[in-house]
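Inputs:
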Amino acid sequence: MSTSDWQDRYYDIDQVLNTPGPRTDPAFLAGDGVKDFLRNQAKILVIGAGGLGCEILANLALTGFKDIHVIDMDTIDISNLNRQFLFRQKDVGKPKAIVAAEFIMKRVPGVKVTPYFGKIQDKGDDYYLQFNLVICGLDSVEARRWMSATLVNLVDPENPESLKPLIDGGTEGFKGQARVILPTITSCYECSLDMLNKPTAFPICTIANTPRLPEHCIEWASVLEWPRVHGEKKVDTDDPEHIGWLYTTAAARAKEFNIEGVTWSLTQGVVKNIIPAIASTNAIIAASCCNEAFKIATSSAAYLNNYFMLIGTEGVYSYTFEHEKRDDCPVCGGESLELPISSEFTVEQLIELLVEKQDVQIKKPSLSTPTSQIYLQAPPQLEQATRPNLSKKVKELVSEGGEVTVTSTSLPFSLSLRITYTN
Amino acid sequence: MATTDSIDITAAQAQPDSKTRRYDRQLRLWAASGQSALENARLLVISGSATSTSVLKNLVLPGVGHFTILDPANVTHRDAGNNFFLEGDSSIGKSRAEEAVRLLAELNEGVEGKADTSSLEHILDTNPGYFASYTLVIAHNLEPKLLARLSTLLWADDTLPILVVVNSDGFLGEFFIQFHEHTIIESHSETAPSLRIDKAFPALYDYATSLDFASMDPTDHTHVPYVVILVRALADWEAAHDGKAPQTSADKKAFKEAVQAMKIKFDEENFDEAEAQAYRCWTETGVPSDITALFQDPQLSKLGPTSPPFYHLLDALRQFTLLPPHTLPLSSTLPDMKANTSSYIHLQKLYKTRAEEEKATLKGFLTVPIDDAMVDSFVKNAHGLKVLRGKKWGALDAEPASLASAVASSPKAAATHLALSALSSVSSPTPSVEALTAAAQALLPPGIELPDEFSDAVGEIARAPNADLPNTAAFLGGLVAQEVIKMITKQYVPIDGYCVVDLIETWTGMV
């Protein structure tokens, strides 16, 4: 027992650590061994100190994890305060990871939380290898793909310690999901990309010529008018002056076209792609993630296999199922993805397809075959050198059944395609 | 091109105040009306347990008006270990209600929190009027005898607060909402209201049939909204088919071909949209059956000046649907579709004008004054109206036949419910599996066996008969707060029955 553990501190938790239940794995070693592992040895990493992250940190600390690390690159905004309960008005502008870590250490004695204010991509394999478990509470698809792929790549079949269970949570309004990923063994984040909702995209010709909705006017202001007026300067969606400019510009266009409904809130919602978020849904999903972490770390009960989906808009509806691994998953599958295309397809059209295709969704892909480069996004010299290929037909560059490797700087893996022609 | 400074729109006026900014992410779910309901609500939470404070945290953050924690206990060693709203061992020995209120109130300056260290039993004995000032009462793991008294008291009169009963142990938990009646206008239904293409209102019909597609400018032709195309195609079809819409699958195919034949260029996407939406021409718009069912509500047959506005509106709606074309009032919301600005805005105006007219007709049936905002909202959400009738807490366990049918229809959830009910009915602090099984069996009618899943549930209870686990507390805290928000805002649809939670296999179910 460490010094901060007063008597009966873990009276409630110890009930499930002292005795197995009917659904506990026979390998569970009830008693002091498991408590010692949980409280003195386990090292856990939390990605994100936002809506889910705050909840996750509090739950982990209360359940007895004492060596917790947290990464977050954001600072606190006033709109976080309706749910990110470790932050107060006075903390606005400060780094989330640091404020959250301090709060937990102050509130839950004897727990050490080590914050890192920065990006997950700043850290290498050695860093991630030190943890027993990783929990992600992120709102970014890119970051989740990166984390999932990194943990899959980390697995060394010779070293069982290299397999780091990843628990991932996500919420949107009254809905959310939690899942357990055992890298290389169960379905990974990339395997389930096609389950994501398609982001709303407005065709550029609608925005430019035939606006009908207030959203079209806002997109016009941010996508077309802003660069025309401000040149190279990027929109800062956290700067009220920038939002104000977009709002007035969009509202003026809406007035010109007799379109109703451009408001500040809608403008902000569209340009920041705001997802509604509340404390209660985050609490449910974070609790589920931490409960899985607790069960995995202690073996005190079976853990989720492997996906829990919650819809709270009409009653409480949930669905627990096993999401299947994809054999052609570019991260954990091993097989290349079969892609039938028309022999008329140009390289540019292929790139467009890769950006949009639900199970691929690779932004700014670079393409090559085993013997040649088709199109590279960077560096500029190579981009320029391969640019003429964009208008060529794929068939001129890749034979039937040929392999194409797709890479992107935003992802730590490459996708292998096998191209076939439909005509 | 418009210049922004020539128009009277200023960013400074539109920028939201700090309260709106703080609540931005939730206002996108329940809007100012929901927020105001929340801010006017008063909650009473019985006990300052880990589960209770987890529920409260999720209600203080979004800005509930007031909360009271009723709890005579002082913080014990175990409380200090499992409750985030206590300050570790430094809270030990202090009032649990006072400590929890202090640390919860810190989350939101706009919320008023109060600690009451009286005992519930004393209040029930001496001051039963105590509860009337609250909107909703939440009770966690309350002693069965007190819970029975409390639920009976609050059930006696439908002006008394709603009661939310939460029971949990180890990895298992459940909760139940006791309410008499709950009406919902803004259910946030995900089905869109009908565009009534099959029953086009006169202005829409006239517009669609007056268009001269043949001599139209080709650019305009590519931008006729699909709604107009379909109304026109249907009018043409009906003129050639004795006034009947397409009926057989051959008809439907021919109709779609006729729509395609209206194209003057192969890539006119508006006609492709029309073909894809053609089913709207032969899917008759009527009053949805769950709305018709509401017209049978007993409240309508005894409608009087003191009836709630919802039922006055429902009765006006009923009368409205008796008029041709026997539909719900038209919605003014038009989805986006391929069109140029002028044709889309024109169509939108036609819908808005008609929707206003129909709303006025509906208002004409009202016999009491109701504010416009409510009428607007009612008409706009007419396709998703809900009336829920609740039960008294404990009613299920008192009806062996209902329990038996729950066991048959949802054995897993029923097994967990029975195990938790058994735990509260046995007096031993460390009950055996046998004692719990006997207690659960006693709730069922003779001859009905406990479901197979019962052994898994009861084994967990016997393993940890007295554990308020932080993760279970947080999970239930989220679920209960979510349902409380739905009850208070009267938006979205709350649960109807017991919501049961198993955090071993991680599922939720309803009994």
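Residues 289-328+358-387 of chain B form one domain. Flag for discussion at group meeting.
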